[in-house]
Amino acid sequence: MPDPNGFLRYDRRLPARRPVPVRISDWREVYPPAGEELIREQATRCMDCGIPFCHDGCPLGNRIPDWNDLVRTGNWDAAVESLHATNNFPEFTGRLCPAPCEAACVLGISGGQPVTIKQVEVEIADAAAARGFTPRPVPAPSGRSVAVVGSGPAGLAAAQQLARAGHAVTVYERDDAIGGLLRYGIPDFKLEKRHIDARLAQLTAEGVRFRTGVNVGVDVTAEQLRAEHDAVLLACGALQGRDTPETPGRALRGVHQAMAHLVAANRAVATAATDQAGVVATGERRLARAVLPDGSPIDAAGKHVVIIGGGDTAADCLGVAHRQGAAGVHQLDLYPQPPQERDEARDPWPTWPWILRSYPAHEEGGERVFAVAVQEFVDDGTGQVRAVRIAEVTVEKRDGRRVVTVVPGSERELPADLVLLAIGFEGTEQQPLLAQLGVARNARGAIDARDDWQTDADGVFVAGDMHRGASLIVWAIAEGRAVAAAIHTYLGGVGALPAPVGPAAQALAVR
Known about the structure:
511 residues; FAD/NAD(P)-binding domain; 3 domains; five-stranded parallel sheet; 14 strands
C-alpha cells in the first residue's frame, strides 16, 4: 500500500531547469534528467486515493497511483509495464502534456500541491528508453491492411495498436520525416527528436511501414488508397491556422503564421544536426538559416519580435526567438492576466483551471502584455512591417459570443520586424483527399465521426485533432488507441483492443 504520510513529509519539487544563459545557446531540452531519489520522493506523495480523480483528468486512463507506488518501492520494470498498458508514448506526453491529471489530483484541493505526475511519468519512460524499447511480439498476420494518413501521435498510436493485433499497417506522411507536429512543430528544447526516432524503430520492428513524401489525395488518390487497403484512418491533424485578414496591414512582409516560424526553425535544427560537412551545431545558437518553403528567411536574429497569442504555440515561438537571437520580444494576449491560483467559483476542482501558466521560455526573456488587441500592422513604407499598433481592451461574453471593446485613448505602438500569429487553429486543412472520399469538414473545421469512429465514407475512420480540433497530445493518443479498437472490430479481428474514449468524449469540465 502507499505511504499514507508521504504527502506530509515531502513538498512538491521539480528538477531544476538548465540555467537560462546556457540553454538559450543551444536547442537541447530545458530539463535535465531528475535523480532517482527525487522521483521516488515525489512518487511517495501519491495517496492512492479511494477515488483517483487523476484518472478522470487523463483521457488515457493512466494507472497513475499504481505506477507512482511502483516507483516509490523501486520496482521500475513493473512501473514501465503499468505505464505502457495505457499509453503508447509516455515519453511524449511526459514532456508535452500540460497535465490535466495534476489539476485533478486530490492533493490540489484548496490550493494544495498536486503530485508531480508528469515528471514521474517521463522518468519512468526515460528509464525504459535507456534500456531500449523492446518490440512486442506480433501475432500471426490477419491478412487485413490499414492505411494511416498522418504520422502525428494519433496516427502512430493507432498504427502500433493495429500492428500488434496482426494487421498490416502503412503510415503515409506528406513531409520528409515521420512525426507530424512532433517532428517539425515542437521545438527540440521541449522534445528532442531522438525520442521520436527511438519509437519509430520500435514500430518498424513491429511491422509498421512508413511512406514519407506522399501527399495522399495528390500523389496517391483516395481510390488507389482504398483499393490497396481494407480500412483507412485519417489522422492529419488540425493545421489550419486562425488568421486576422481584417486587420490593416496583415499582408505586409514579416507577418506570418506561428507554425511557419516553428516549422522553419525545426527544419534548420534538423538540417544542422545531420550535416556532416558542417559544425555539429546542436550545441550552438545559430544552426542554420530558418527559411520558408520559397527560400525567404523567417529568422528572429536581431529583430524585434511580436507574438500574438497566449498559449503553448506562442510560448514555443518565444523560446525559438530567444535561441535565434532576437533583439526583443513582446507576447500579446487578448485576455486579462489570469490569477496565480484556481478560482474555485469559476473552475472548481477537479476541472482544468484558468490560471497564469508560465513556461520555461518566459523566464528566458521577453515581455508579456495582457488585455490588448492589435489594431494595425504598421508599414515601413516598403511593404515591410515595422511596428504593431495595439490598444487596451475589455473582453466579455454576451449571449454566448465574445465581445471585445477598445479602451479609448489607450493605443500605442510596439516595434516589430517579425510578427507571429499564434491565435489558435480553425480545424483540419481543406485538401483534395476529403473531396475524393466524399468527406466534408463541419462548422468547426473538423471531421465528424459516427459512434464507431467511421466518417460518412464507410471504412474510412478519423481520430485525433482532425476529429476533435486542436487539442492535447493525451487526447490524440487516446483517440488513436480508441479508433484502432474500432478498426480492429471492423476488420473482424479476434478479441477487443482497449478503447479509452468514445468519439463524443469531452474533457473534465463544469457542466
